[in-house]
Write a structure and sequence with these properties.
seven-stranded mixed beta sheet, 14 strands, 39% helix, binds pyridoxal-5'-phosphate
Length: 393
Amino acid sequence: MNQKMDRRSVLKSSLMTFGGISLFSTGAFANVPLELDASERIYHSPLLRENFLESATIAPKSMVRINANENPYGPPMTARKAIADAAAGGSRYSWRELETLVGKIAKKEGLTPKHIMMGPGSSDLLEKTALVLFQNGGNVVSADPTYMSLVQVAKATGATWKAIPCKADWSHDLAAMEAAIDKDTKMVYICNPNNPMGSITAGAELLDFCSRVSDKVPVFVDEAYLELAVGANTQSMVSLLTKNKNVIIARTFSKIMGMAGLRVGYIAALPETLDSLQKITRGGMGIAQTSIAAAIAAMDDADFQDMTRKLNHEVKTYLCENLDKMGYKYVKSYTNFVIFPISMPGKELLSKMAERGLMVRSYDLQGKPWCRVSMGTMDEIKQFVSALQEISS
Ligand SMILES: Cc1ncc(COP(=O)(O)O)c(C=O)c1O
């Protein structure tokens, strides 16, 4: 093995243990090696590469983590108490608690429990759906750039990927996506609002697309950030299930509910779709009883969700005002992160931010470097703004 190969494998394995940061956000997982391009950036798509620091190992606790779109205010106090109360029941399987959670979710979504499958985070269900749908190959149609978890597993399972560039405003190009569907298409994947752009695709247009296209192929809509989309002209696609449309809607407790580390997510789909997934997973079996209890409590904690939405919006407004002052042209965000082009190489940005105790993300998109920053607390974003002012001057 030559030295270059050696170094590349070391890089790959160090990324694998990078505090879950790259794994988490790239959607890669342990048995799928990360793909690096010739400049040793993580290859996400024809349009999107991610820069990373070769020196980075596990991030020290003292770093400000504004790189993984986490909710800095969670978990809610009500969920923390529920975890403590549930701990004593940890010697038992949690079928009953799971049933309670599923029932609560079904009621909220206006569906039956048979329409809901739980998982340890929505990533797990994105991946399992890809494993089942692409077991005999086929292709997946999605936007580029988008969140890559499902697409990566589809590719690893043997599917090909039809990457459809986003429109100029970074919304999904639904007409081009529909035109890309062929006889081998097994699924269309939509992430709305989209990660890593933070952009939105209009609700009425998307509803019409999902309703029509799902008569041909299943449409998977990842709504991880939907509850944070303040002022957006969009909506959940979940209502299509009451019309028996073949859509699969993914939701997570990691964002608005502030429970990323507790690992709870679900998909809502037609019961027959979930039956096919049951062949390889029992979904909720992967969730700890304490996390189920936390999820039940968090669902009832409207105050926490309102507070998150409000603070996220305030912090984002503060950030955007400062980006405006500094002349950065950010993409309007309907999420808890903001992405904007920068004028220095992505790796340089990462290391200058790291020197100042800040962890952010950097992509090369359409050949230009970009910074993606997640909404931490106001104090954390103030630190980010000062650091950006310093390194931009
Ligand atoms: C669009 C999107 N979907 C799904 C996930 C995964 O979330 P979970 O923590 O539920 O696995 C993320 C995480 O950042 C995401 O950005």
